[in-house]
């Protein structure tokens, strides 16, 4: 057997084996979610069949040509499925005619095969058929490359990562065919070396194509390891050092006499000493490693584009009513291609609670989020939490034990980025895992840390502006109320005077009776209003009394339950210390809000119980519920109300009244599920213990 025929047989046999193994690997190990997987298996199998036929029969035989036609049609169908896999359904209408046209040109090869078998006896006819077939194959290769170019350039960033390996393999396939048939068309013949090389090329192209169907194919990159790069750079430094020494020695050879020998010996001694001191240096090796990583590797991020996108996201205004909190999450999530995120911000006790979310549709995060101890660690250390390390048990400052189980168990949670402003923790953004999963590296930590500090400044600025706006509104409210109080006081004095005069000078008994009743009712109402308006100051503890929460809860139910079903599900005696009238007023506000948020027949339920240290009253409804953003930013803000015509001061007044008595008001709400208000008041015994502990010791007298 001639050498060329032997090489052709070996190359096509190797190509057939590789293509068959690649088809089997994609069928068993490929990503099952890709809709083009079976098309890829068929194309690889037909490529193996073509290589087997080319190795078994002479070139130009009909079976070889027919298997090649089937292979080419299969690869065109794979290209079409890649467009569909990218998700651009609108593009399929434009691509489908082009793919059908290329397939039609390829099918014309069948006509040429029939003509060559029937009428290809003469050399002139055979040459025409050969050139026509070659030209058709060139057209198919050119058209396929154009479609492949449009597919890759028009794909999204995440899609490009999935298309990278299959697109590169198909580009190599059709580029090789284009060069192969171009040479054949120009020379009217195909060199034997090109024929053998084509079989081997088919097998080599099948390898990266099959790798592209791995579920982690987007993470595969053709790049040397950092250790190899560092060693290569070290060898370059050593080689440059030796070259410099050789050049100096060569230059010193031009000198003559003892001076030249002395200079050479001195140079050798100095070079050896420098090498012994310089090469083992940890500082040098560390600098060399950092230089290799930062300058010989392409950065993950295009910082210019990231900064432009970040600025546009934060400064975006429009009619979508996207809050700054949601824009903060999106600005940070876009950098890492995270599909969702959460924003947690500090509560009054220092713990972090859920403030806003972006596409994170889950009710599993506890309302208090991160505890105070974890927030303290993040603020002190500026630590960016890698949840994969948390799940592996890696602990740096004790944050592993403090992380909420809901985030630890949720595999979507990928990173927690603290937002620090002047060493003060403004919030924490929890990012979801990117669509293409990867491990965080030093560049992620650097960029997320810088962006987190920038976002913290925006949030701090918004908080300052909100505080100034609230202060100005309170100032206006106080000015108005000063006039109202003045007028009401004057009216009360006048009516009281009128009442005293009427008692002295009215002669008619009926008139006196009616006037007295009217004036007395008016005076009582005005005095009650004055007492209510003056209750916002700090109350004296001398006015506190011991009362039962169950009694107050039933009183509120009797008052508010006349027009709406309100019931008490749990009634445990809990004696607390405070202003009973103020407490019932605050509880009435909460019950009325629950009634307003519920359907006409939707029940409102109360639970009264004690946990040993405090007495608790829970107001529960199954109404519309509130978003975390509304609870955080609007629920306890005066002059902000979701009810038409509402003044927006009920919830604020309830919280202030409860706080004034040393209590606490918490709220849990989910949109569409309902709301739970929890009022916690220190028990009477607990309050007495705290009061005795805070009193200064009595001074002993002689």
TrEMBL record:
EC id: 2.7.13.3
Residue ranges crossing the lipid bilayer per the database entry: 6-27, 39-57, 94-115, 135-153, 165-183, 195-213, 233-253, 259-279
Domain Histidine kinase: start-end pairs: 483-685
Chemical reaction(s) catalysed: ATP + protein L-histidine = ADP + protein N-phospho-L-histidine
GO molecular function per UniProt: ATP binding; protein histidine kinase activity
SMART domains found in the cross-reference section: HATPase_c
UniProt entry keywords in alphabetical sequence: ATP-binding, Kinase, Membrane, Nucleotide-binding, Transferase, Transmembrane, Transmembrane helix
Listed name of the protein: histidine kinase
Provenance organism: Qipengyuania marisflavi
């Amino acid at each position: 057997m001639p050498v060329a025929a032997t090489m052709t047989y070996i190359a096509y046999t190797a190509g057939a084996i590789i293509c068959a193994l690649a088809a089997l690997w994609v069928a068993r190990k490929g990503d099952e979610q890709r809709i083009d997987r079976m098309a890829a298996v068929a194309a690889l199998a037909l490529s193996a069949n073509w290589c087997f036929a080319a190795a078994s029969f002479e070139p130009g035989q009909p079976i070889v040509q027919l298997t090649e036609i089937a292979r080419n049609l299969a690869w065109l169908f794979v290209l079409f499925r890649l467009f569909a896999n990218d998700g651009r359904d609108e593009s399929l209408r434009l691509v489908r005619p082009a793919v059908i046209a290329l397939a039609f040109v390829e099918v014309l090869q069948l006509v040429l095969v029939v003509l060559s078998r029937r009428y290809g006896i003469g050399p002139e006819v055979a040459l025409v058929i050969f050139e026509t077939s070659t030209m058709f194959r060139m057209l198919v290769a050119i058209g396929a490359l154009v479609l492949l170019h449009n597919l890759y350039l028009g794909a999204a960033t995440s899609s490009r990562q999935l298309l990278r390996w299959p697109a590169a393999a198909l580009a190599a396939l059709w580029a090789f065919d284009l060069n192969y048939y171009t040479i054949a068309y120009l020379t009217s013949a195909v060199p034997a070396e090109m024929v053998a090389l084509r079989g081997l090329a088919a097998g080599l192209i099948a390898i990266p194509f099959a790798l592209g169907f791995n579920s982690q194919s987007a993470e595969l990159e053709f790049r040397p390891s950092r250790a190899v790069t560092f060693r290569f750079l070290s060898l370059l430094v050593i080689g440059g050092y030796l070259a410099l020494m050789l050049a100096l020695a060569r230059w010193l050879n031009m000198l003559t006499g003892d001076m030249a020998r002395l200079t050479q010996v001195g140079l050798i001694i100095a070079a050896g000493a420098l090498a012994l001191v310089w090469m083992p240096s940890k500082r040098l090796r560390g600098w060399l490693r950092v230089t290799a990583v930062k300058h010989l590797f392409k950065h993950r991020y295009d910082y210019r584009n990231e900064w432009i996108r970040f600025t546009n996201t934060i400064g975006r205004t429009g009619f979508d009513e996207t809050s700054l909190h949601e824009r903060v999450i999106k600005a940070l999530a876009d950098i890492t291609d995270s599909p969702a995120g959460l924003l947690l911000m500090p509560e009054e006790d220092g713990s972090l609670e859920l403030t806003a979310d972006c596409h994170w549709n889950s009710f599993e995060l506890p309302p208090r989020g991160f505890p105070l101890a974890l927030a303290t660690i993040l603020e002190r250390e500026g630590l960016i939490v890698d949840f994969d390390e948390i799940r592996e048990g890696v602990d740096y400052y004790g944050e592993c034990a403090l992380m909420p189980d809901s985030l630890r168990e949720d595999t979507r949670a990928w990173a927690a980025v603290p937002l620090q402003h002047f060493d003060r923790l403004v919030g924490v953004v929890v990012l979801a895992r990117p669509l293409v999963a990867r491990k965080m590296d030093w560049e992620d930590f650097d960029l997320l840390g810088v962006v987190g500090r920038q976002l913290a400044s925006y949030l701090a600025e918004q908080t300052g502006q909100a505080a100034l706006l609230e202060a100005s509104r309170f100032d206006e409210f106080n000015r108005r109320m000063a006039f109202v109080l003045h007028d009401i006081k004057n009216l009360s004095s006048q009516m009281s005077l009128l009442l005293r005069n009427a008692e002295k000078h009215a002669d008619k008994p009926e008139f006196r009776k009616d006037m007295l009743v009217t004036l007395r009712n008016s005076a009582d109402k005005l005095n009650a209003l004055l007492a209510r308006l003056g209750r916002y100051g700090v109350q004296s503890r001398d006015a506190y009394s011991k009362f039962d929460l169950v009694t107050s809860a039933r009183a509120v139910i009797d008052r508010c339950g006349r027009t709406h079903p309100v019931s008490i599900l749990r009634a445990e005696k809990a004696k607390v210390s405070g202003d009973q009238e103020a407490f019932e007023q605050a509880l009435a506000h909460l019950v009325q809000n629950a009634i307003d948020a519920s359907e006409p027949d939707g029940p409102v339920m109360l639970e009264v119980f004690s946990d040993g240290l405090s007495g608790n009253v829970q107001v529960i409804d199954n109404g519309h519920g509130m978003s975390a953003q509304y609870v955080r930013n609007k629920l306890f803000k005066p002059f902000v109300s979701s009810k038409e015509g509402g003044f927006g001061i009920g919830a604020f007044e309830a919280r202030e009244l409860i706080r004034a008595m040393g209590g606490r008001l918490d709220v849990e709400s989910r949109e569409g599920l309902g709301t739970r208000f929890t009022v916690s008041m220190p028990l009477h015994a607990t309050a007495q213990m705290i009061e005795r502990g805070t009193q200064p010791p009595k001074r002993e007298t002689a």
